Amino acid sequence: MGTFPEAAASVRAEGNRAPVCRADEKGRKKNFFRRISRMKWIWLKNGKETGYAEFRSEFSVETEDAELKIGADRQYAAWVNGRLVCCGQYTDVPAHKAVDSVSIAAFVRRGKNTMRIAAYHADADFSVARTMEAGVAFEVYAGGQLVVSSGEATLCRAAEGYTVGDVVTPQLGYGWGYDFCREGDAWQPCEIAENAFREEPRPVPPCTVDEPVPAVVCAQGIFRRGEGETVAEQAQRAWLSARSFAEMTGKDRLLFAALPEPVRFVGEGGDGVYVLADLLRETAGHLSLSVSVPRAVRAAIVWGEHLADLRVRSFVGGRNFAIPLRLRAGENVLDDYLHRLGGRYLCLFVEGGEVTVTRLSLRGSLYPFKPVPKHFDDRLLGAVYAAGVRTLQLCAHEHYEDCPWREQGLYGMDSRNQMLYGYGAFREYALPRASLRLMAYSVQEDGLVALCAPARSAVCIPSVSVWWMFALCDNAEAAYDAAFVREMLPYAERMLEPFRMRTDRNGVNAFTEPRFWNFHEWSDGLSGGQAFRTETLAPYADGLLTALLQCAVARLAVLERREGRLAQAEGMETYAAELAAALERYYEEESGLYATFLRGGKRAGHHVLMQAAAILTGTVPAERLAGLGSELKQAKRCVPCTPAAFQAKYEAIMKADGDKAFCLGEICRVFGGMLFSGATSYWETEQGEADFGDAGSLRHGWAAVACWFLDRYGE
Question: How many angstroms from the chain centroid is the CA of residue 269?
């Protein structure tokens, strides 16, 4: 299984900076299991529905050499003596429940100490997490001895202030709100939760938690309430009137930093005042808020990546990016560590005519990558590379995620690209392996990887499993770990079976059952437009799936042989040869291209990604390479690919004719163009926010191909 690092926390002394957690590479799994035997999972009595709970425990120590072990169902944050120690439950599955190990030496004092834990439970599956038994569990050790553990003596209550909001997205699940006027319930004994969890050490270090990022007020004024069922919809449809900085505040420029000067906003003639804050670049992190009002009022914060007509797009295609608030008279301070937001803009709406804002920002939170320093003579390439690194950082937390704003989902294709690009940018292998494991743990009964790990889904994308195979092979080539490879190969073998069942002389036949989404990438004809259909598709053979699978199987055979699994290796080599032979049925002599599909025995569709996949099989005759390479670059007869598939295209070009200049030129044109338009990270597609019904992601890790190309081939 390899080494499982234990998490340790360190705190920066200056200001109110939250701790940054770092991994202890010397942690050992056997010791971990030996020391968590007394943990009990606890929760509110009769509190199985979605909600928030907090726990209080007191303990005494004679040494400051103390350690906290803690895990939760969905999310947690822990404080010792009023100071934040750690937060962020690793996204896991019931059979492999992650528990953090955190040094609390910097937080405890000799004698009596108080620990408080806030936790969140959801009673439904969403893409980002799987429903489990509601609960938290913890132990505190001092000097190697157990001093307190979760159990009947731990006090609990419904978490003060937190409320359950509208569903944000089908991926992110329930939203949340905060009521500053609601006082906490009385403390009560906990209920012991019966579960069959198998606790394991957290496989990767926790994300950092930093100071609130600087935010500039880019608009303010009065508003009138909009119509709509949700807070996000009302905010989107509100009437806004812009007022100058001087008119509203008497200042020329407003900056919200970690400890800024409070700024008073006063407006008349509407239902309240609003303040629009720009975080200056795409950010992922935890809400940090400090506002004061003269009387109790309702308020809301909306967040997002897109700004139009002074509006943050908070209600996009039914998605609800909003946090309802109820403010009490006086100061209202909230640093939330149970939810992570992604975006660039925050807009605060406060009913009534007055609010004083001290802080309106996010505490940046990212996976603790350490970028490998690189220098480029070409300034544009340097900027393009740096933005790619930033994009990868924004899309990695407990696991890789497609985007930190809209979904935060672990998808097979997205994550394969991110892993591959990150090997050169970070030389980091723990997060890729943990993400591959998480997807493997989410394999469905038919052997295929779920649409999005770790949660179950009624919809499945077959190609996701193929990209998982690619990612496993990439990881082995980047930094071979024999134990990890041996652990993962049985999952790969199981994934192959559904494809074998659909393979004939035409290659792999498409998955036409209603629950399958035959997605490859977002170019026309490959996006699986039949997704969520109610009727069964007519059978057809998928040449692109055949070619990609051939590449994956051939690479897996190498791993099988290296591990001495000769029977499995020979079987895969035979299967790869069968797929290569079938691929020939897609080649058109008259056009010199590979068709993408066979429908009713007739070739159909021509896509750039199909030509690239054919080249990557290594079975294309040498005399065809020049023509295919030319089409990859010109796309005169083929449907171009989107940034998600640029890596395959560039690798195929380098194999076909080695035209490095073309690849670098396109990287500068496409991604440099995004930067020149004001982007601070790379978009999901070249259309940016205008795509997907104005919900296009502006930071999508699969687009950071420049990191891979420049690391592998240079300037």
Answer: 42
Rounded to the nearest 10°, the torsion over CA 418, 421, 423, 428 is: -40
Distance, CA of 589 to CA of 563 (rounded, Å): 40
Radius of gyration for the chain, computed over Cα atoms and rounded to the nearest angstrom: 27
State the Cα–Cα distance between residues 86 and 104, nearest whole angstrom. Answer: 9
Determine the residue type at 151: G
Amino acid 707 reads C
- On whether the CB atoms of residues 58 and 112 are closer than 8 A, the answer is yes
* Per-residue pLDDT tens digits for 39-56: 799 999 988 899 999 999
Question: What count of Cα atoms within 13 Å lies in the side-chain half-sphere of residue 681?
Answer: 29
User: Measured over all CA atoms, what is the biggest interatomic distance in the chain, rounded to whole angstroms?
Assistant: 84
205-to-22, 70, 105, 401 alpha-carbon distances in Å: 6, 14, 18, 16
Any residues with CB less than 8 A from the CB of 180 and at least 6 apart, and which? 161, 325, 326, 327, 328, 332, 334
What is the side-by-side order of every strand in the sheet holding 597-599?
A: 541-542, 597-599, 602-604
Q: What is the pLDDT of residues 673-686, one digit of tens each?
A: 999 999 999 999 99
Structural domains in the chain, sorted by start: 6-201 (2.60.120.260), 215-364 (2.60.120.260)
Backbone angles phi, psi at 467, to 5 degrees: -65, -30
Contacting residues for 487 by C-beta, under 8 A, at least 6 apart: 1, 437
CA 100 centroid distance within chain: 20
Q: Give CA–CA dist 31/22, Å, rounded.
A: 19
Name the nearest CA neighbour of 382 among 668, 165, 705: 668
Contact 104, 384 (CB under 8 A): no
| pLDDT tens digits, 595-647 | 999 998 899 999 999 999 999 999 999 999 999 999 999 999 999 999 999 99
* pLDDT given for residue 287 in this prediction: 98
Q: Are 437 and 414 in contact (CB under 8 A)?
A: no
**Residue 490 and residue 497: Cα distance in Å, rounded?**
11
- Pairing relationship of beta strands 20-24 and 6-10 according to DSSP bridges: antiparallel
Provide the 10 A C-beta neighbour count for residue 189: 13
Alpha helices in 448-533 (DSSP H): 462-478, 482-501
The tokens for 596 are 């993408």
Which residues does 318 contact at the CB level (< 8 Å), separation at least 6?
A: none
* Phi, psi at 218, each rounded to 5°: -105, -10
CA distance 274 to 267: 9
Q: Phi first, then psi: give them for residue 572, nearest 5 degrees.
A: -70, -40
- CB 118, CB 77: distance < 8 Å: yes
For residue 465, give both structure tokens: 């499993």
Give pLDDT < 70 ranges for the chain: 1-38, 196, 244-253, 257-260, 530-536
**Pairing state of beta strands 111-121 and 51-61?**
antiparallel
Query: DSSP of 432-466, one letter per residue?
Result: HHHHHHHHHHTB-TTSPBPSSBSS--S-B-HHHHH
Total count of residues recorded for the chain: 715
